[in-house]
Amino acid sequence: MNIGIVGCGNISGIYLENLTRKFKNVTVAAVADLDEGRARAKAEEYGIPRVMTLEEMLADGGIDLILNITTPLSHYSINKQALLAGKHVYVEKPLALNYAEGKELIELAESKWLYVGCAPDTFLGAGIQTCCEQIKSGAIGRPVAGSAFMMCHGHEGWHPSPDFYYDYGGGPLFDMGPYYVTALVRMLGRAESVFAYGGRASDTRVIGSEPRRGEVIPVKVDTHNAGVIRFANGAIVTLVTSFDVWNHWMPIMQIYGTEGSLNVPDPNNFGGDVKVATQENMDFHDVELVSPYVENSRGIGVSELALALEEGRVNNASGRLGLHVLEIMDGFVRSSAEHREIVLESSPSDPVPLDWSAPIGELRTK
Q: Which residue range is the domain that position 174 belongs to?
């Protein structure tokens, strides 16, 4: 599969590293960025043969998939342009700014028999995959509840251009929430409804990093979100995402079952320690990881999409999964604004088991 990458910002480095040097079934054919100099620098660093504009990529019959790693405000428009041009799409999270936009994209893709993939693909890492296996095997019994906390004080202290973190499509819910919600959906299945509240500590933030240190930027979205997700299997999970917390001692994520508890590693990472406590052993103890993907393997979702296309099946980090995650997050926003429970209509695609004994970079199904 020949890939055209749109967006050469901070996250592009790890994608380029993995897609050019780790995963064997994809080729990065071209890169594009509004800053042509930045695109040329990435092309030279990673040996990419062409620097193109988005328009040139969309018109090029040799490019099969557009990897959209621009900022969230551009996700919907670029995704739609790519699909209309007959290209498959893989996009950084979120799929779009709201559920209506995301639903339009997925329906467009399916009408044209095109594949959509959506980050995060961290759930394909060893940490979350091991947690999925623990739940599936009945290690903690039937899941009945859970908790997930993503709390920090935002990114303006280190990011060179943090504006988009506080713009529409950003905030802690849409920026970091996809890692947590995607992991929860893959562990527990379809969500049925949500109820949430949101707020913000300040209407402005001050950049603390160079080259814009001291500049004041507006906060356009809630920076603290707290809510409950009710899953179809009966589990009720509390989710808090915040850019308003200086420090805390809350667990990253835990799932509570009828026969034990599961301590889930950071879903923003691929590895991490998985720990289980049961009736027989009440102390949390380590569980052996089921996969070798413990290092940062962003791009595995792109490689797995190419494999799925070859095999004629749904991909794991699918558009339908991304849409369900988007509806859950959009439901948080709507619930906070409307002060009511939001019943969800979407469903994620079913996961496809992968053979984790395969060499790293050479994915295959079981």
A: 123-286
